[in-house]
Give the backbone structure.
Amino acid sequence: MDMPVKKKKLGLKEKYALMTRDLGWEPSYEKHEDVFPLINYEGLKIHDWEKWEDPFRLTMDSYWKYQSEKERKLYAIIDAYNQNNGHLNVTDARYINAMKVFLSAVPSLEYNAHRGFARLGRHMAGVGPQVACQMQAIDELRHAQTQIHALSNYNRFYNGFHDWKHMNDRLWYLSVPKSFFEDACTSGPFEFIIAISFSFEYVLTNLVFVPFVSGAAYNGDMGTMTFGFSAQSDEARHMTLGLEVIKFMLEQDPANLPIVQKWIDKWTWRGVRLLTIVAMMMDYMLPKRVMSWKEAWEIYFEENGMSLFKDLARYGVKVPDCVEQIKKEKNHISHQAWTTFYAAAPMTNFHTWVPSDEELDWLSEKYPETFDQYYRPRFEFFREQAEKGERFVNPNLPQLCQVCQIPMLFTEPDEPTQTAYRQSEHKGEKYHFCSDHCQHIFDDEPEKYVEAWLPVHQIMQGNCFAEGADPTSPDFNPIASVLDWWHIENGRDNGDFAGSEDEKNFAQWRGMATSNN
């Protein structure tokens, strides 16, 4: 008679089950709805949490081993880049301004995502999503840490990085990405995961990490390329999770479809509006460009993203209505954003410039239908004004959209000479929007969006002046006081790149690094 042989090593499937699914239990001393109070109020019907599948079947012990090895390699490269003054190898010091925008905005988004997924891991009732959310929460915290590490190196040499966290809570343009994540974090758990894991990470994240980070590599920034692609390897896992989330919700109950579709429509639009600044960075702030925003959009959204929606059509999911408008705006938004920032130069923490003739020709080639007709004349005007010593600056504070918080810089989808403007009324107050889609989002949840903290509105109400400032004083300068409140030194941290301290320092340091003198 054969003796039973005891298995010495668990198979992958058994190990995965023991270290994930077998961690769960049903409480006997508290009601299920009391333990998971956020599960039901969004209206979704979940019948079987065991159907939640993690496509990577990653356990926590494997996660730690894999991530720690990746982390060691990442910091080795970043530190070597820093110790060898890698920042002097970038193509042109104007590029540093793209990093000011990226590193001023993104670390806090990663940290908010970390908080959001940590909260989600607590409130999701199934073990599968709890484990997946725990890993993603750690990923997001790691991304924030590596970006702050990179920022600390740039801060040793260049202006505008010195108080990024303070600025992140106050500076007007940084309220756009911040409001996106705060909007998501104040949603219910299922809407949050649609907003971040599906709409932002699955549908849109490739537009941030692939063409922009490739642009960093193309411009000699190996530090950013390294932390960018390290994050992207996590994003691939997050993206797959986002797709599984959608399928899980839709397969649980047919009644979930209209709720899920509404969230997809909302967060696709919110995400695209957020990427306006990425479009600007790709077309105007990379001295050497990998591709235009329009080309990136067509590859990563119109081709790849639409394939995704074809796959989801069997569940009844439709392409968001906003896509038709986005197709029209891809020819415009980067130009509209850069002209807005150029005109608002004293109110930023980075430098701006008029593109060179060669760069204007590149933009004409990439945007043959719009650039020469609508935007080249503006830059030629800006240049003429600057040559006369009358640098163009918009003296007014722009009106902000109540939902996306972007200034009213966008034009009507079919009329590029007409600024888009929508208005709704709620409890006797008027609210303004940049588009039909932002207006629709507001009208669906007005009580939420009336609470938005809009920087320009706060400035106009006198809530953003430096401590001790006296607005009644005859020599009171409101703009100078606001800059003081933001911790920005006008002319040093912002304004024209030409003649700036950053430009002079970069030229001097690179000269020292490449000569024997």
User: Anything to note?
Assistant: The CA atoms of residues 384 and 390 lie 8 Å apart. The chain has a mean pLDDT of 89. The longest helix spans residues 222-252. The radius of gyration is 25 Å.
